[in-house]
């Protein structure tokens, strides 16, 4: 599938956010540290509790979009996420390749994150269809994914889950 590089990276940021392990009380900080290349140099990553709550809300909204199973439902949930975004796009070649950034470079980390995630996710949905987002079919996984396969046939979040499920199905057939 042939979508623009930044858009496709931004949707991966969204997927990572939805799949973040929220059992760790410090998960927001862990997530921001692991993805700090997404934020303008000098952006403070320390968050007040209310800001950490806003990141959790964005994470839940991304998951809601991926879990929706009709176009109207995806649209409504996507629009709830977009309502939190403050896009101020600009072109940049900071990494040597001309591309768009969606958020103000001087915005706080929550605004940069929410805006980038909302815009990245929306682009994939409007350009490639709402069915491109889904929840892993492997038992006990629950991760969301974006399907970039040519024929939109993906059912698992990762190769690990795909092969685990193939083995489980094989064993189940052996038993019967
Ligand atoms: Zn960039
Ligand atoms: Zn999985």
From TrEMBL:
<dbReference type="InterPro" id="IPR023286">
    <property type="entry name" value="ABATE_dom_sf"/>
</dbReference>
<dbReference type="Pfam" id="PF11706">
    <property type="entry name" value="zf-CGNR"/>
</dbReference>
<feature type="domain" description="Zinc finger CGNR">
    <location>
        <begin position="132"/>
        <end position="174"/>
    </location>
</feature>
<dbReference type="InterPro" id="IPR010852">
    <property type="entry name" value="ABATE"/>
</dbReference>
<protein>
    <recommendedName>
        <fullName>Zinc finger CGNR domain-containing protein</fullName>
    </recommendedName>
</protein>
<dbReference type="InterPro" id="IPR021005">
    <property type="entry name" value="Znf_CGNR"/>
</dbReference>
């Amino acid at each position: 599938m042939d979508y623009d590089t930044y858009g496709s990276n931004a949707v991966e940021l969204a997927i990572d956010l939805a799949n973040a392990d929220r059992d760790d009380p410090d998960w927001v900080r862990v997530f921001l540290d692991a993805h700090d290349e997404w934020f303008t140099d000098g952006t403070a990553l320390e968050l007040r509790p209310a800001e950490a709550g806003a990141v959790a809300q964005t994470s839940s909204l991304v998951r809601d979009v991926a879990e929706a199973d009709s176009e109207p439902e995806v649209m409504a949930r996507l629009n709830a996420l977009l309502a939190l975004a403050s896009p101020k796009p600009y072109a940049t070649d900071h990494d040597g390749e001309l591309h768009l950034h969606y958020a103000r470079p001087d915005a706080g980390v929550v605004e940069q994150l929410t805006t980038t995630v909302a815009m990245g996710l929306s682009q994939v949905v409007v350009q490639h269809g709402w069915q491109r987002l889904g929840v892993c079919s492997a038992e006990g996984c629950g991760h969301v994914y974006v399907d970039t396969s040519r024929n939109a046939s993906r059912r698992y979040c990762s190769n690990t889950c795909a092969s685990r499920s193939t083995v489980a199905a094989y064993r189940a057939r052996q038993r019967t």
